[in-house]
Amino acid sequence: MVAPSLRARVRAGMIEEIKAVARRHLATDGANLSLRAVARDLGMVSSAIYRYFPSRDDLLTALILEAYAALGDAVETADAAADPADLRGRWLAACRAARAWALAHPAEYALLYGSPVPGYAAPDDTVAPAQRPPTTLVGILRDGVASGRLAPPAEDLPEPLRADVAELVAALGMDLPPALLARGMAGWTQLFGLISFELFGRINRALPHRDEYFDHQIGLMADLVGLP
Prior knowledge:
Blueprint (H helix, E strand, L loop, with lengths): L1 H28 L5 H8 L13 H26 L5 H18 L1 H8 L13 H4 L1 H16 L13 H12 L5 H22 L10 H16 L3
Helix pairs in contact: 1-2, 1-5, 3-4, 3-5, 4-5, 4-7, 4-9, 4-10, 7-9, 8-9, 9-10
């Protein structure tokens, strides 16, 4: 009974070490990972690493799943720490948490939201983890509608957009007006656009006071959504 448990612990430790080295490669080389290079840094023969990750794509998927989980944890924790009745405060806290995580983990953020990795197709099991941050933001809208503190926008959506968004509402299982979800999606895409522009150096020279700019922009998105 002891030997299998020890082997399992050794294997788990080796997997964590491989991922740690791979994350360092992400920081220096981007998502163009080489299993041979990772094995070399670990002092392993290249064939040995395949016992832990059969392919580069398997290692990339493991890193992506971990990054999505960490980002989701950060956003959900920030939302949970805010006053549940303060819809705007929750929105701002969740957005700031996403940015803070991205700035602290730029290579992992780039793996999630940067240029697609040539030849890599993310498997289906990455979909649910990827949905955690936007689901948190949509949950704020749901709570606002349910409590009566958030009024849906008066306008309707043009077809066929309305049908598309209505399908999303049904898939989420939330009682939300499609026009409100569409505004929430605008806020979500604006959030990650802001983070990407900052992280990839698109606005840094023009806007040195980036904390203030970020807060101003997410506040505008909160206004668009209608958060009191």
